[in-house]
Write a structure and sequence with these properties.
This protein has 617 residues and is of the alpha+beta class. The chain is built from 20 helices and 16 strands. A hairpin with a 6-residue loop joins strand 6 and strand 7.
């Protein structure tokens, strides 16, 4: 029978502690002494509640049967195995010994966490719905139902992980995170919600770190800008979200249009951020340039995405932080869709928790977009329920943005009353009207004067520039001014369609000769470089885990500025090469649109001169 060495009371007989029995067969005295020192170090890291829960006999054996990559195992028969390969390092000197001691201590605490979970009278943490929410095994919404149906089988919180083994299953997630909870003084700042969960359950660990930063870093996914006039472009810059400066959070709904993927709208959250120095209050709603939008989407530059790929999950779903003014422009001016901004009734601590959760998703989440089952409405709802636990008890799940808006209002969480007075809603920023009505009004001015054949402004904008050109000659001063605005809008829409077409065409084909190959290569590189704005964790590859800390922010800022400069150069290069990517018809259309705009500008100046400088309004 094997002899046993017992750690019976590292903290005295009156204090409960794990009774770790070392099976000493084949061990030298120095090895037994080093192992018992390891036991004492582990017991010192455990919280009192953990020591009490583990105050029973646990046989421990150094094993040669474990794979090289497996440092320990908590067997179902109650025996704890440690990999024998770790033992020689405990007898070494200097850095080698320190590294071996750290690895062995992590392994021992990891396996004790498994025993802790099995013996917990409150039930396994790995089955606790709240921990599963925090960890990333999220709830699912099923098409056609408003109730939740199970959880995701896969944990998509893949980025900035301390150990990807945690993603294997919830039990390993608990063990990996308890290990870091007990050993890492920064854990409270890197994974604050999980830290609070473990602290409530088991008490604070010894040596917990000092206070955490009050704000959260993010990479702004706004436009980058390629010319001198784009100095205010925010894309790629490192920003900070400070919950103390956030007055309210709104449910931001982009209204639907006729496109298949946009018919039911788009769900987002708007952070109403006060300008620096302004006290929190209603006036912060006027600080539009400081407001940010949390938007789940596939890519930063794609408002519309392929129907088929959206149905089959071939797009990523990631959380972008965007400037509100950019979101307003892309929906109201390009997509011709209105925006509704409904304040959510959240307490101050709930706003802070929601922003913290958003930061975690921004740095860690790499989801998959499914039009049915995991679209923007589902993702936004999961962010709300995981960030604000009381929302989790409400039956709000669904798969459409409009449906989520209605459910939030019925539950008393969203204030739809702000839209009751349309003029006030526009004035105070609760609604942003589509430019469609303004464009239609301008179109009616031009249609009456020039006799345009279309009835709807959409039909005019979708006509080719060559088809529009003959009607421009009939314009007078007022209708020419209207047509210039419409021609610029048509040019922008055409440019976006062309960009999407050549992106799909040339990224899916290889072997392009000469200029086509060069331009396609630049485009491919540009898209690859842009990807870091959707995966900001790439800026801190192999550095840390969880939320970036103060000492990582300098590297983040330097890395983001370097990437921004690379993007600007690539965009400038592509601007010169882009014509090579277009088929002749596309190039002719762009040239014709540019010619229309130039002609209207000249025509307006001449009409203005003939009118003796008469004001255009």
């Amino acid at each position: 029978m094997a002899a046993l060495a017992l750690l019976a009371g590292a903290f005295g007989a009156a204090q409960a502690s794990p009774r770790l029995h070392l099976q000493t067969d084949g061990l030298a005295a120095a090895e037994m002494a080093a192992t018992n020192a390891l036991f004492r170090a582990a017991a010192a890291r455990l919280t009192p509640a953990m020591r009490e829960q583990l105050a029973h006999d646990i046989p421990v054996r150094w094993s040669t049967a474990l794979d090289e990559t497996v440092h320990g195992r908590a067997r179902r028969d109650g025996v704890l195995l440690l990999n024998r390969r770790l033992l020689p390092g405990l007898l070494a000197q200097g850095q080698a010994r320190a590294g071996a001691e750290a690895a062995a201590l992590s392994a021992l605490l990891h396996e004790l966490a498994h025993f802790l979970e099995r013996a917990d009278p409150a039930g396994p943490m790995s089955r606790d719905p709240r921990l599963l929410d925090l960890a990333g095994w999220q709830v699912r919404a099923t098409p056609g139902l408003t109730r939740l149906m199970g959880r995701t089988r896969e944990n998509r919180f893949r980025e900035r992980s301390p150990d990807r083994y945690e993603l294997d299953d919830p039990r390993e997630y608990v063990a990996v995170n308890l290990e870091h909870y007990l050993l890492d003084a920064d854990y409270a700042c890197r994974r604050p919600a999980l830290y609070r969960y473990f602290e409530r359950r088991w008490g604070a660990p010894a040596g917990a770190g000092a206070g955490c930063p009050g704000d959260f870093a993010y990479v702004d996914a706004g436009d980058v800008g390629v010319d001198a006039d784009a100095a205010m472009a925010t894309g790629g810059r490192l920003g900070m979200l400070d919950p103390e400066r956030i007055y309210q959070v709104d449910y931001l709904l982009a209204e639907g249009n006729d496109a298949m993927m946009s018919r039911w709208g788009h769900s987002m959250l708007r952070l109403v951020i006060c300008a620096p120095g302004r006290p929190r209050g209603p006036d912060c709603r006027l600080d539009l340039e400081h407001h940010r939008v949390l938007s789940f989407r596939a890519f930063v530059g794609d408002v519309q995405i392929s129907s088929w790929r959206g149905l089959t999950g071939r797009y990523p779903s990631r959380l972008f932080v965007l400037p509100l003014d950019q979101v307003i422009d892309e929906y109201t001016k390009v997509e011709l869709r209105g925006l509704q901004s409904l304040p959510l009734r959240l307490e101050r601590d709930e706003i802070a928790a929601l922003v913290e959760r958003a930061a975690q998703l921004h740095w860690s989440y790499d989801g998959r977009y499914f039009f049915l089952g995991n679209n923007c409405a589902v993702e936004t709802y999961k962010l709300l329920r995981d960030g604000v636990p009381r929302i989790g008890s409400m039956d709000l799940g669904g798969i459409t943005p409009n449906g989520l808006s209605h459910r939030l209002q019925r539950a008393g969480l969203a204030d739809g009353g702000v839209l009751a007075d349309p003029a006030r809603a526009l004035r105070e920023g609760y609604r942003f009207d589509s430019m469609r009505e303004r464009f239609q009004t301008l179109f009616e001015v031009a249609r009456r004067q020039a006799g345009l054949p279309q009835r709807r402004v959409e039909d005019w904008l979708e006509a080719s520039p060559q088809q529009r050109r003959p009607w421009l000659d009939r314009s007078d001063l007022k209708s020419a001014a209207a047509l210039l605005v419409l021609e610029q809008a048509a040019r922008r829409q055409q440019q976006l369609r062309v960009r999407d077409a050549f992106k799909r065409r040339y990224l899916q084909q290889g072997g392009q000769p000469g200029e086509l190959r060069d331009a396609a290569g630049t485009l491919r590189t540009l898209l690859e470089e842009t990807a870091w704005m959707s995966r900001p964790a790439d800026l801190l590859a192999d550095a840390g885990y969880g939320l970036p800390q103060v000492d990582e922010r300098a590297a983040l800022e330097a890395g983001s500025e370097r990437r921004r400069e690379q993007l600007r150069k690539l965009e400038q290069r592509l601007e010169h090469q882009v014509r090579a990517l277009l088929d002749p018809a596309q190039a002719r259309d762009l040239d014709a649109a540019d010619a229309n705009i130039a002609w209207l500008g000249t025509h307006l100046r001449e009409l203005h001169r003939q009118a003796g400088g008469l004001r255009l309004d």
